[in-house]
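Deliverable D2.4 — example input (structure tokens):
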């Protein structure tokens, strides 16, 4: 639990409420500070996994905490941004799609875990995650980013919508894998289902 990768993951979780609080302060400095902490949180998402593998400190608690931290961060930000009307009207659909997918995939992983079924992350899923992270960064800045890049909020909204479309495509791969194994008798053989 006290290994460096796990501490980085816990640090990411600790940054989430700070980012949310800063979002609700209507000032440019708060938006930039929130973005700064968000970038750090995103960086730890990569660094903790890299260090765990490099230092040979991959642990069960780390495997459990890392996806939980990701879902807490994404879910909290989407809800906060929707509450602030930075994701309003048709744009909020993207947030709903992403949130529903997170819950469905989490449940599916829990179901397939005892069956020793792996769900490898595809390139498209990685692109989706990257685009989603970037879009959330633009949404965090919102109107305060216009002094640097015009239409910051709109760019974030469009980016998140594209990420939501990719979410549906990749999520369908997980659902197909789940339905396949729900109908299939249990076997001790480990099987890999490739996400699309």
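Example output (designed residues):
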């Amino acid at each position: 639990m006290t290994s460096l990768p796990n501490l980085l993951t816990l640090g990411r979780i600790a940054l989430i409420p700070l980012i949310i609080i800063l979002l609700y302060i209507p000032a440019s400095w708060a938006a930039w500070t929130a973005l700064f902490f968000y970038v750090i949180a995103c960086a730890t998402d990569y660094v903790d996994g890299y260090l765990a593998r490099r230092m040979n400190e991959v642990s069960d608690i780390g495997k459990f905490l890392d996806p939980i931290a990701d879902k807490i961060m994404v879910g909290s930000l989407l809800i906060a941004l929707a509450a602030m009307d930075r994701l309003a009207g048709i744009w909020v659909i993207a947030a709903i799609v992403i949130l529903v997918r997170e819950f469905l995939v989490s449940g599916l992983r829990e179901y397939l875990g005892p069956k020793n079924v792996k769900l490898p992350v595809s390139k498209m899923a990685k692109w989706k995650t990257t685009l989603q992270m970037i879009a959330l960064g633009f949404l965090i800045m919102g109107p305060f980013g216009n002094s640097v890049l015009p239409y910051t909020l709109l760019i974030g909204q469009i980016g998140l919508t594209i990420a939501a479309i990719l979410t549906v495509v990749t999520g369908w791969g997980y659902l197909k894998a789940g339905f396949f194994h729900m109908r299939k008798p249990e076997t001790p053989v480990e099987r890999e289902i490739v996400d699309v």
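The helical segments are 4-23, 28-54, 60-83, 92-112, 123-141, 152-183.
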